[in-house]
Amino acid sequence: MTERRISAVPGPENPEADTRLFFARPWVFIRGVPSMKFLPPEGPPEVAFAGRSNVGKSSLINGIVSQKGLARTSNTPGRTQELNYFVPDGFTGEGDDLPPIALVDMPGYGYAKAPKEQVDAWTKLVFDYLRGRATLKRVFVLIDARHGIKSNDQDVMALLDKAAVSYQIVLTKADKISALALPKLEAATRELIRKRPAAFPEIIATSSEKGEGLDRVQAVIADFAREG
User: Fold this and answer.
1) Of 28-37, 115-124, 173-182, 187-196, the least confident
2) Does residue 103 come out as left (phi exceeding 0), alpha (psi in the -120 to 50 range) or beta?
3) Residue 113 pLDDT
4) Residues 6+ apart with CB under 8 A from 17
5) Which residues contact 79 (CB under 8 A, 6 or more apart)?
6) CA 49 to CA 56: how far, in whole Å?
7) How far apart are alpha carbons 192 and 40 in whole angstroms?
8) Is 172 helix (H, G, I), strand (E, B) or coil?
9) pTM given for the model
10) How far apart are CA 218 and CA 19, in angstroms?
11) Of the four, 31, 62, 145, 213, which is 20 to 30 A from 171 by CA?
């Protein structure tokens, strides 16, 4: 069993090649968590994806694992209302047979047209998870490159700072702005997070449609899998 776990984790000898192999294997959905009592037991490290509704979380996750249908995408903001867990295929999650890492697609925040009680319920789930999950190693905070950081994003970053949870800004849909505008946006974003204590300084610009920047997100996740 131990041999199986080691072979599933990217190694240090050739990290780029091992990372590609790690994400080339099938990934599966294992659990939707509508409330904290349904969280799986803490074990392997977790990396979560947070962002405003319709920012492209599901598309980014699908792009990272090269599986179009793994995380459900929707044109309807606010559709994802659970914490959705994804792991490499072949692990039971029981005993010693734990996955090397879990990806967590979090409910989108900031969607005003859903019923208030619905918004309050999934917002509380997100915030409770961020505050109380010891195995959570990093949160990728996704920002639509066309719009930049909004007040809801800053609220989430303030919570992450307070909880001392490491987070990293990932710009999505970077192909939708000009090549000249992107460096300016990255510089402005770096300035906005410069004094935030839990913010990781490196910003990753991505395009799920064109596959740009996904390898950089994969590398971060693979590092946590190695450490775990």
Assistant:
1) 115-124
2) beta
3) 64
4) none
5) 72
6) 10
7) 34
8) strand
9) 0.88
10) 7
11) 31
| Separation between Cα atoms, residue 17 and residue 32, nearest integer Å | 31
Measured between alpha carbons, how far is 35 from 94 in angstroms, rounded to an integer? 21
Q: In the predicted model, is pLDDT for residue 6 greater than 50?
A: no
DSSP three-state, residue 48:
strand
One-letter amino acid of 56: G
Rounded Cα distance between 54 and 108, Å, is 7
Classify 66 in phi/psi space as left (phi over 0), alpha (psi -120 to 50) or beta: left
d(CA 198, CA 213) in angstroms, rounded, equals 22
In the chain, the domains with their CATH numbers are 2-227 (3.40.50.300)
Edge-to-edge strands, sheet with 167-172:
27-33, 83-88, 102-105, 46-51, 136-144, 167-172, 204-205
Mean pLDDT of the chain: 86
CB–CB of 58/71 below 8 Å? Answer: yes
The DSSP bridge partners found for residue 50 are 141
Please check whether residue 187 is in contact with residue 153, taking contact to mean a CB–CB distance below 8 angstroms: no
Q: What is the token pair recorded at 227?
A: 């450490």
The rounded distance, in Å, linking the Cα atoms of 107 and 119 is 10
For residue 8, is pLDDT > 70? no
What is the mean pLDDT of the segment spanning 134-160?
Answer: 94
What's 176's DSSP letter?
G
Give the pLDDT confidence score for residue 61 in this predicted structure.
Answer: 95
